[in-house]
Design goal:
The chain is α+β, with helices and mostly antiparallel strands. Helix content is about 25%, strand content about 20%. The strands form 5 sheets. A 4-stranded antiparallel beta sheet has the order 3-4-5-6. The protein has a 3-stranded parallel beta sheet with strand order 10-9-13, with helices on both faces. A two-stranded antiparallel ribbon has the order 1-2.
Length: about 270
């Protein structure tokens, strides 16, 4: 039985009881709620991110919020977090006392006075921003794939320039392609363009899941793609074509209501 304080869930007692690793002890959370406190965790329980991205927030009302800033962890909350540590806890049940267990959804509200303005960082100045999603859209067979390989070549080659003479940030590239073969198309094109092939990786179309291979899809495998990006210090991710990796029947490419959430997750990953 968990100890209660003032009729509310005792979060500090619970953290100690289940030895939840804490990176930074609670500090006031500046959201206008004077009683709110925020913990930074050593790692998140969902994808093991250990870069101060996982957090717990206890609001003055007693409601509790948990999360991780990584896109692959979006959708998880306090009840999922508690279930990860507390044996036998049923995250689907609603406790008496309403929001005292954090079951009431809490909006994330940012006061614009607390936002520090910053300039857009560019991969190609005025055309392709860093940390954002850029869509190359045109009719078939006009060279979109070749264009993205030209971009990859310039990024792979230290000291390269864009066609307008602007400098190119040097870095690693990951290509996800469903249209062209690596051996007879991608690598020969990169060679012809003068790419540094050692700086370019390709993610295959099949993902090993236990004893079987499943098709790579953005709805299912964004966490793995994010892990590959971080591990390789990738500056440019090329997905060609985007709609080949929407998960088939799970995302109807003709429905904005289904495509937009996927693109939002992809942009958040960037």
């Amino acid at each position: 039985m968990l100890r209660l304080a003032m009729g509310q869930f005792d979060l500090e007692y619970w953290l100690g009881k289940y030895s939840v690793p804490i990176r930074r002890c609670p500090v006031p959370y500046p959201n206008g709620d004077r009683g709110a406190r925020r913990w930074v965790l050593e790692s998140c329980p969902w994808n093991n991110h250990a870069d101060s991205s996982a957090f717990l927030i206890e609001f003055g009302s007693g409601a509790i919020s948990a999360g991780c800033h990584h896109n692959s962890c979006q959708g998880f909350g306090w009840r999922d977090f508690r279930f990860s540590f507390e044996p036998g806890y049923d995250p689907s049940r609603t406790e008496s006392g309403g929001s005292s267990e954090g079951t009431k959804p809490e909006l994330s509200i940012t006061n614009l006075a607390d936002v520090v303005p910053k300039s857009v960082a560019w991969l190609w100045s005025g055309r392709i921003p860093l940390g954002k999603m850029t869509v190359v859209a045109e009719e078939p067979d006009l060279g979109k794939s070749f264009l993205t390989l030209d971009m990859a070549t310039r990024v792979s080659d230290r000291g390269a320039r864009w066609p307008d003479g602007a400098p190119v940030p040097h870095g690693n590239i990951v290509i996800v392609t469903a249209e062209d073969d690596l051996e007879d198309t991608i690598r020969p094109r990169l060679n012809a363009l003068g790419a540094v092939a050692a700086n370019v990786d390709s993610i295959g179309l099949l993902v090993r899941d236990g004893e079987k291979d499943v098709a790579l899809s953005l709805p299912d495998h964004l966490p793995q793609i994010e892990e590959a990006i971080i591990k390789r210090n990738v500056i440019l991710l090329i997905i060609d074509p985007l709609l080949a990796f929407t998960g088939g029947r799970r995302v109807d490419s003709y429905k904005q209501s289904e495509v937009r959430p996927l693109l939002t997750r992809l942009a958040s990953l960037a």
